[in-house]
Amino acid sequence: MTEAIPKEEINAFARGKASARDVITHRRILHIAIPIVVSNATVPILGAVDTGVVGQLGMAAPIGAVGIGAIILSALYWVFGFLRMGTVGLTAQAAGNNDDAEVAALLTRGLLIGSLAGLALILLQVPLFWASFRVSPASSEVEGLARTYMGIRVWSAPAAIAIYAITGWLIAQERTRAVLVIQIWMNGMNILLDLWFVLGLGWGVEGVALATFLAEWTGAALGLWFCRAALAGPAWRDWVQVFDRPRWINMMRVNGDILIRSLLLQAIFVSFLFLGSGLGDITLAANQVLLQFLMITAFALDGFAFAAEALVGRAMGARQRYILRRSAVLTSGWGVVACVLMTIAFAWGGGAIIDLMTTSFSVRAEARVFLPYMIAAPLLGCASWMLDGVFIGATRSRDMRNMMAMSFVIYVASVIVLLPWLGNHGLWISLLVSFVARGITLGLRYPALERSVVA
């Protein structure tokens, strides 16, 4: 069976205002989303292999060193995650406007930002690592090994951050299979080199770091190969276009708003863990286990949120209000399907998932007490996750920033009221309230987003 094309889209074809690229179908959405879902599924495998390989050394310190070193570097790189989101929206809009020169220039701008940010981390590694260990102190042995690990890995920071720009640029053009290949290449190479360097050559922590270093640089090279069509033309090095002042200002504005939004979101999760630590070690451990349910949900929804980013961005650039709406509705529909499936899976197998994550009977029992919140989380958070994708594609970054700020205030107020009264139940309710608040506030801003599309 073939999927019917809505009457509005047929009329757009008749008026010559739409092309085959403007037809939004379920098949097209799945074509974008499924490779991202599969790509996300490979991420936990790498962490498990890193830990397992180092664990074969028979000592606790290397495991802790790799763990804390990876967390610190991931946190530093994460600050530049705005580069992926901002690049998707801007590139998709340029593509929707058939502005091929700007599409190529955006790739160059993203690569420049990623390279400069990576070089800054290399130059500032000493004070950054010092500050990191003041925040997360460790034993002298673990800290020494972690510094060795980080001292090697940080030299691939330009590649690791540039990959954000490359993947955002590819997603904007719906080339998520290329993103999947990059992820599989990086993870596969990392795992193989882990086994060779650590188990074969006995290089220990240094071997794990070198494996990641090589995986990230080759991953960036592979990403550039996927961008070769744009790099074969002259537009990517048209420096007048690349350094056009208004476009740079707009890009920095969008990225700045997304950075503030992301920092506020991170503040919610960090404060959640910090406040949970005051409720006892068992409760803290149970919360950490249950947060993995949110990670699973986010991994499942990313594909459909990314589809929303690409399709909404293209419709925004082409100034096609109906196609924007259809993109938002259909991708969100698939997001709801994913969330319902997650809720059913957590309700049916949540206990078994908890048992896989911990062998502590006390932590298992505590986690089961709060499992209902994780069963409800996908449905309560679906709107916030999917609307994030819609607003990223539309580059309505100011709305994202402001609605996130409002949600943060609501979360803080909920914690102040509920934590002393309900303890950890109050903490979980506050977290879910922040999801609902973000979904509602963004939803209230959606009509203005549509009205901003002027044909």
Secondary-structure class: mainly alpha
Q: Tell me the overall shape.
A: globular
The proportion of residues forming helix, as a percent range, comes to over 70%
CATH topology of the largest domain: Tetracycline Repressor, domain 2
> Ends: how far apart?
33 Å
Using only CA atoms, what is the Rg? 23 Å
Tell me the number of helical segments per DSSP (H or I, 4 or more residues long). 19
Strand content: under 5%
What's the rounded overall pLDDT mean?
88
Sheet having the most strands: none
Order of helices and strands: HHHHHHHHHHHHHHHHHHH
- CATH secondary-structure class of the largest domain: Mainly Alpha
The CATH architecture category of the largest domain equals: Orthogonal Bundle
| Structural domains: how many | 2
By DSSP, the count of extended strands is 0
Query: Unreliable runs, pLDDT <50, ≥5 residues?
Result: 12-18
Overall description:
- Keywords: Membrane, Transmembrane, Transmembrane helix.
- It is a multi-pass membrane protein.
- The chain crosses the membrane at residues 29-47, 59-80, 111-132, 152-172, 184-205, 258-277, 289-308, 329-350, 370-391, 403-422, 428-448.
- It comes from marine sediment metagenome.
- It is found in: Membrane.
- The chain folds into two domains: 20-243, Tetracycline Repressor, domain 2; 257-455, no CATH class.
- Helix 5 runs antiparallel to helix 6 and helix 9 (157-172) packs parallel to helix 11 (204-226).
- Helix content is 85%, strand content 0%.
- It has 19 helices and no strands.
- Mean pLDDT is 88; it is low at 12-18.
- The chain has helices at residues 7-14, 26-41, 43-55, 60-78, 82-96, 100-123, 125-135, 140-153, 157-172, 176-200, 204-226, 228-232, 239-242, 245-277, 281-318, 321-357, 361-393, 397-422, 424-451.
- With 455 residues, the protein is mainly α.
